[in-house]
Design brief:
InterPro entries: DUF4360 (IPR025649). This is Secreted protein. Keywords: Signal. Pfam families: DUF4360. By secondary structure, this protein is mainly beta. It has one domain. 6% of the residues lie in helices and 53% in strands. It contains two helices and 13 strands. Strands 2, 3, 4, 6, 8, 10, 11 and 13 form an eight-stranded antiparallel beta sheet that branches. Strands 1-5-12-7-9 form a five-stranded antiparallel beta sheet. The longest helix is centred in the first third of the chain and has 9 residues. It starts with 8 loop residues before the first helix and ends with a strand.
Length: 210
């Protein structure tokens, strides 16, 4: 015997009104360097920024963000820093996502030497909910003959939660305080080791409403 469930008109109307949530739209607006002084790898004149067509990916471009260690080189060159800000527009309400800072460039490490990328992030109108650890590069993967360099592309991703209360407050500033350095294994360098960060793509994935 077949049975049937009758839906009343109010129940049908309620069912029709339920729609899947739309993915929030976040765009990149602009960026600027906020670091100068000794040790900065992106001081005034050494930092630029470009956007893709739909403004979902921004690319920071560095022409002096480079850590080096070699025979007779100044020890201070083994560590550099770069602090910069990126402005996004967020929708009104609560949004979660993952902000990616993806450095790329050239690297070459002497045997037993390491390179590191580390960063701390903050974001206005919200918080970093999953801070990433540092990225380590070792000579087993990034060793090369003298004066030859390898391409690298990495990803440093942080979970974020942002709450925008009004339409006039949609601009949100993301601040990245980054640092690169070369590790020496207790021996004097006999070759040049170079970690040259030439660019970093900044973008957000996994967007959702809270």
């Amino acid at each position: 015997m077949k049975s049937f469930v009758a839906l009343t008109l109010p129940a049908l109307a309620m069912a029709a009104a339920i729609e899947p949530r739309q993915t929030p739209v976040v765009q990149v607006v602009s960026a600027r360097s906020i670091s100068n002084g000794q040790g900065s790898g992106c001081s005034t004149g050494h930092f630029s920024f470009s956007l893709n067509v739909d403004r979902t990916v921004g690319t920071a471009i560095f022409d002096d963000y480079r850590a080096t260690v070699g025979p007779g080189e100044d020890a201070s060159l083994r560590e550099r820093f770069c602090d910069f800000e990126v402005t996004f527009t967020f929708p009104v309400g609560c949004t979660t996502g993952i902000i990616h800072n993806s450095p790329g460039g050239l690297i070459r490490l002497q045997d037993r030497f390491d390179a590191f990328f580390a960063a701390q992030y903050t974001i206005e109108k919200g918080q970093i909910v999953r801070p990433p650890g540092q990225i380590r590069y070792n000579s087993s993967n990034y060793g090369a003959p003298p004066n030859e360099y390898l391409d690298f592309k990495s990803d440093h991703a942080a979970g974020v939660r942002v709450t925008v209360n009004t339409a006039t407050e949609r601009n949100v500033v993301y601040r990245a305080s980054t640092r690169i350095f070369l590790g020496q294994p207790g021996i004097s360098p006999t070759e040049n080791s170079v970690y040259d960060v030439q660019n970093a793509e900044i973008y957000i994935t996994d967007l959702a409403t809270c």
